[in-house]
Design goal:
Distance between the termini: 60 Å
CATH class of the largest domain: Alpha Beta
Bound molecules: pyridoxal-5'-phosphate
Radius of gyration: 22 Å
Strand order of the largest sheet: 1-7-6-5-4-2-3
CATH topology of the largest domain: Aspartate Aminotransferase, domain 2
Oligomer: single chain
């Protein structure tokens, strides 16, 4: 028998071996602390000599079941779940980098991540923001103290597709930690491991959870990186297989010390949502492509940025990487004379809200909201003009979505 497909795996083979009473979901464990009859055993768990739970800040059986599910989707050797995607990113950067290190990041990234990287600079990490759609730009930014490269698979909100495989090869050649934020593509379109990533970050709040009812984040270790080449792993975590050290440090620093912990209740909601990731992504990608074509032909639309359109600069790359599905995010720039706010106020299916990867289609004027704080100059650098709409396409019926945008754009 051939290996089961993505959705079969997800609904049947995640954590089931460990559940009680044949329950199809992992139990929601509310306990803060875990007791032991034998003090030796308690000590062994604290010293990582034995698997077990101590205090819920460092995880529960419920968050562990979610972590197993995400590891399976990403084909990784381990995952740590966090309270949000931002908590996951903070854990990666602050657990691994030190003052005087150099980080190369794509300049096309989520605005809050961009802001986080500016905080990292305040702590003495050198930062280069480069056009990661071209590996040559990453290569040109290399310094002797470069430790890490960070990119998004498909960028939020500009939809640029990074030169993912070539950057993976470059990182391997220079033994750099390669961190890929896979939030917009999700492991369903392609596991980050296929691009040579060392670590894959997913905001579980987005496609993986999918229902707009839970925040979460995850860091998955692909097992491709040998952490003996990374100088900042604490002595205590240099045990066992060196392909596992980095995630241990991320877990200890990110959960135990920084406390960005996911609760069991929320972990259950995310795990239930994740079961239908494949179904939702197929529908979302098909809807997004149809809406992208409709808007691209519309006289009030200046341009549509969607990797599924042949006019997208990385259309061929996106097709190669993601097998003809291009995600659910559209960047739409309306013509200059168009009243953006009047158009948005006429929508009655699509909801005006931030967030993405939801069952519902959500629309946001990006420059006036999530990119407002950073100012016009940084917006220009990131390619976000004033008339830029970020549309996160949902699972509605395609005709209803197209009709909604058609009537909203019947303005003068
Ligand atoms: C939303 C998002 C995040 C942050 O995730 P939260 O769960 O909202 O904290 C990180 N990266 C990308 C690409 C995102 O879209």
């Amino acid at each position: 028998m051939s290996a089961p497909g993505f959705t079969t795996q997800t609904v049947h083979f995640g954590h089931r071996a460990d559940t009680e009473h044949g329950s199809v979901h992992a139990a929601i464990h509310p306990s803060t602390e875990y007791t032991y009859r034998d003090a030796h055993e308690l000590a062994a768990v604290f010293q990582n000599r034995k698997k077990g739970y101590t205090y819920a800040r460092t995880g529960t059986p419920t968050t562990a079941a979610l972590e197993t599910q995400i590891s399976m989707m990403e084909q990784g050797n381990g995952t740590v779940a966090f309270a949000t995607g931002m908590a996951a990113l903070n854990a990666v950067f602050f657990a691994l980098l030190r003052q005087g290190d150099h980080l190369i990041a794509s300049k096309y990234i989520f605005g809050n991540t961009n802001s986080l990287l500016m905080t990292l600079e305040n702590f003495g990490v050198e930062l280069s923001l480069v056009d990661a759609t071209d590996v040559a730009q990453v290569q040109a930014a290399l310094r002797p103290n470069t430790r890490m490269v960070f990119v998004e698979t498909i960028a939020n909100p500009g939809t640029q597709v990074a030169d993912l495989k070539a950057i993976g090869d470059l990182c391997q050649a220079h033994r750099l930690v390669y961190v890929v934020d896979s939030t917009l593509s999700s492991p369903y379109l392609r596991p980050g491991r296929d691009f040579g990533a060392s670590l894959v970050v997913n905001s579980l709040s987005k496609h993986i959870g999918g229902h707009g009812n839970a925040l979460g984040g995850a860091v998955t270790q692909t097992g491709l990186y040998d952490w003996t080449h990374f100088p900042h792993i604490h002595e205590a975590y240099r045990k066992d297989d060196p392909h596992t050290w980095g995630l241990m440090q991320i877990k200890k620093k990110g959960l135990r010390d920084m406390g960005g912990t996911l609760s069991s209740d929320v972990a259950h909601r995310l795990a239930a949502g994740a079961e239908t990731l494949g179904l939702r992504m197929d529908r979302i990608c098909a809807n997004a492509l149809a809406l992208a074509h409709f808007l691209d032909d519309h006289p009030l639309v200046e341009r549509v940025q969607y990797p599924g359109l042949p006019n997208h600069p990385q259309h061929a790359r996106s097709t190669e990487f993601f097998g003809g599905r291009h995600g659910g995010l559209l960047g739409v720039v309306l013509k200059e004379q168009t009243d953006v706010f009047a158009c948005l106020n006429r929508l009655h299916v699509a909801a005006l809200a931030t967030h993405l990867g939801d069952n519902r289609t959500l629309v946001l004027p990006a420059a006036h909201t999530i990119y407002y704080e950073m100012g016009a100059e940084r917006r220009a650098l990131m390619g976000i003009p004033d008339g830029f709409l970020r549309i996160s396409v949902g699972i509605e019926d395609e005709a209803d979505l197209i009709d909604d945008f058609a009537q909203a754009l019947e303005i003068r």
